[in-house]
Fold each of these.
Amino acid sequence: MRCLLCARWSIPLVCGECDRLLAPTPKLHKIKHLDLISFYDYDTIETLLWAKYHAFGSFILQRLAKKAFRPFFSDLKLEREAALIPIDDRPNAFFSHTAILAKYGAGGFARPYFGCLRANSNVKYAGKTLAFRKKHPRRFICKNFPPEDAILIDDLCTTGTTLLEAEETLEKRGKKTLFAVTLAKAR
């Protein structure tokens, strides 16, 4: 097998050398009024994010979540319980990429709530423009969950449209979004 990043021969999907280079660097972004924390630039892990469409993608996402989400959330100090809400965590063929990420954020006052925020449309945003995204909203449906505070979880932020729509949906349910967390942010 070859490393997904450098194409050198490797037994793991990402060779040891490339894995060492995948050190997460938390960055704070603003999407309108919403704070977003991301750990990688999209260009750095683009190949790995595309793995979510393959059966082996769950292993890649688990590795990235262990490197980024687990340390971030274990250091996070919350005053009260907050729900980790994976965006549209419906399994796609083999697994749910956002559910994997939320699982690795669990701990302390942060607890994942699965199946609470699902898109009511089947539109795919990969490679689509901002105009397309605005014209084709996800139309989220939110099921109730106990905590008043929520932290949105997604794999990638491109334009922020999905995160803002998700936040608006939670707000209509009386929930407060503290911030959003993604693996990567596109430029």
Amino acid sequence: MPDQRSVLILGGGSDIGRAAGLAFAAKGWTVRLAGRDLQGLTREADDIRTRTGATVSVHRFDALDTPSFDGFLDGLPALPDAVVSAVGVLGDQGAAERDVAEATRIMRSNFEGPALILGLVANRFEARGSGTIVGISSVAGDRGRATNYIYGSAKAAFTAFLSGLRNRLARKGVHVVTVKPGFVRTRMTAGMALPGLLTVDPDVVGNAIYAAVEKRTDVVYVARAWQPVMFAIRSIPERLFKTMKI
């Protein structure tokens, strides 16, 4: 008999969100896709349902509308077994350096919104005594770089939040996973020159998320080459690092 556990995917209309939904649905989970674009989510839900036969529903969620978060969770059919946050925007670094509104959008979308909703989920999971939380962060948060430090700083904050949440809930029956995909071939990276060895497709990320939930992994570098690469970058002395263009 198929497993009827359920997963809520925040940012379910993104390429990674859709891939995660497909990965869970293929294993018999009930999938709830949440995001702002209900029409787009409905198309994704129909596709996942057709491919897998899984139960898939759609729910409106805006990561920047923080006052709506409790009502959103209260409105779900049931508290899910796992929640995946695939919310985030890359934004425009150059514009964000000059425009506070763009910098605010990037920071709120990649840290404030995802952290606050997952914090509320964490409280409900803790009260129940079970659940898995997955936050999609980024290798960009491992060290600030001139080319993307606004996005990277938000992801660094999100990584720290997930680490602290994992530590807090470790003995409460709730597991927290941090996923760092690196470069992914998505609509967000369209037009960028992506390094082949360090770039993966969305389905690889989706499968990695599912595997991390099942194996209760703590931190996942989806493209494994990123782990030594980021270790090397973090090890560069600051006096040297500030003269580099990376």
Amino acid sequence: MGHDDLIRVTAAQRRRLQAIVQGSADDARARLRATVILMSAEGSGGELIARTLGVTRRTVTNTRTRWRERGLAGLSDRPRSGRPPLADASYRATLRRLVERDPRALGYAFARWTAPRLGAHMATVSGVRLSTSQLLRLLHGQEFVWRRTKRTLRNLQDPAAIARAHRQLKRLKRGALRPAVGTNSGTATG
């Protein structure tokens, strides 16, 4: 491990870093940086940290530099110039609560959120309309994994009818519904 990899943390700093790693989903970049520092302090090399966390080696190096220059303050992003983001903390909190709810509980006929539906609902609730790609990036930043919806008719099926069909299929497989073979033993023949 080279000099650039050497990171020292005090016991108090370690506790604070661990609290950040286990903290809220609002500042995913700060959590990532805290994880890099903790792994560095444990002696992990930059390549290993980059592979483990799925980031570039440059991200690890930049995080270590920020730590050396600013300590704990270097974990958070500095204020940025320009227009404030449309998706502020309130928007992100509302989005997080919404994604975890069943859309049917809000009166919708569908059982799963799609990104366009989610965006449309958030626009009515918050007045902020984001593009689908912006919304997906925001969800990814809050550690939600978003996939395309798999088309299915399962929500339109009657559970009782499904259960009856499964029972009937089971009986068919066991031979319970085979027609009885007629015999003449013990019965009168004409």
